[in-house]
Design brief:
two-stranded parallel ribbon, two-stranded antiparallel ribbon, 62% helix, mainly alpha, binds arginine, 20 helices, 462 residues, single chain
Amino acid sequence: MAKKIASARISAESSRLLQELNNSLPFDKVLFREDIEGSRAHAYMLKEQGIISDEDYQKIDKGLQEILLDIEQGKLKLDGDDEDIHMAIEGELTRRIGDAGKRLHTARSRNDQVALDFRLYVQKSNKKIAALLMETIETFVRVAQEHADVMLPGMTHLQHAQPINFGYHMMAYASMFKRDYERFMSSYERNNYSPIGCAALAGTPHPIDRKITSEKLGFKAPTLNCLDSVSDRDFALEILFNIATMMMHMSRLSEELILWSAAEFKWVTLSDRHATGSSIMPQKKNPDIPELLRGKTGRVNGNLVALLTVMKGLPLAYNKDMQEDKEGVFDSVKTALLSLQVLNEMIADMRVNKEAMEAACMVGHLTATDLADYLVKEAGIPFRDAYHITGNVVNLAEEQGKDISELTLEELQRIDSCIGKDVVEMLDNRASMNARQSEGGTATKRTLEQVEHLKQWLSTQK
Ligand code: ARG
């Protein structure tokens, strides 16, 4: 049976079942660093403001540092009956230093304390994920630069559409991960305000200075309104949304990698480090890694929806429902950090099969649009007529078992005499790709411009 250190009114010991439902220590113990960091800043402020004595502050600060070390070295286990990490640390401190420990909770509540600890954790996680995203973007940009002239069929509806290059395709993902990076960084900025000192919900009559704690903890400023600050979990929702969006991008890429490594494509080969075998079929090499990255989107989406649901009906200010905010965030952050590292390694090690990609460009008459465009531009034919003439050319190619890029001038002119000899060259896949020179287009030259742009951007973020 647990001894309650914070229950002036409750006389009976808690039931085991209540503890099992109520205690968050089993999962919020991962916040021990943030809890101690927050308490040290709070104690410092109390001393600066003359609310506790210098002597008590010294004891508290030394005690907290020793507790931190003991937890890190495994000498102090956080597996007792304490309700949560805040009670566990405060209790341990008081056991070690006596009465001075009991002064630490002056002018604060667990409501602002947990808001602080959790926010510190989320802020650190924003930075960690952003740093890994930078590495990921670098990898994509490098792979893009190396493959800016490797052609593949660009698709819509998963049907061959127009020739693009693999670097261009990689730059599409680099652009998504850049937006992801910016989302984590902007969440960091928006939420970089300190809630400590808000106490239970209404502030405190003690002469505290919230600027001191805010500054010591690296925040921009104290939050504006205490009632909001103890009940705000937007910062947690934002990281959950940011992770879900990032994982959605990763999942789309994973889907492509899974397809591309199938025998029907063979466009990429994942390194043996990132493939697994089958227990029964000796010949198999399975793309488990992209499958797992795709599968992990399920849990991170779930975590976002779960917290949105927890928060939606809560009156101000703190409600115990909010204790349900943490596990999903811990899970999503862990998933994001691991997934990004794996993705980065997998993309860096992946082999791009140029021959298979380029051979695939000979299927599906990828340059048909170029012919229609030519007839409009060079022969003044209305687009709808040009569209039909091109359709006849495609039919002829099909009959001959060829791609339209393989038709001879004579064959083309049999369909329409307006077709000049420059068309033969123009129907070549590479010429078609390089003709798409509009800004943001796939021409190798434009792709390399995009590479340069992101390289430049990367160098300004460091
Ligand atoms: N363990 C609690 C949580 O995670 C800490 C805050 C408790 N506050 C309270 N008034 N019971 O939300």
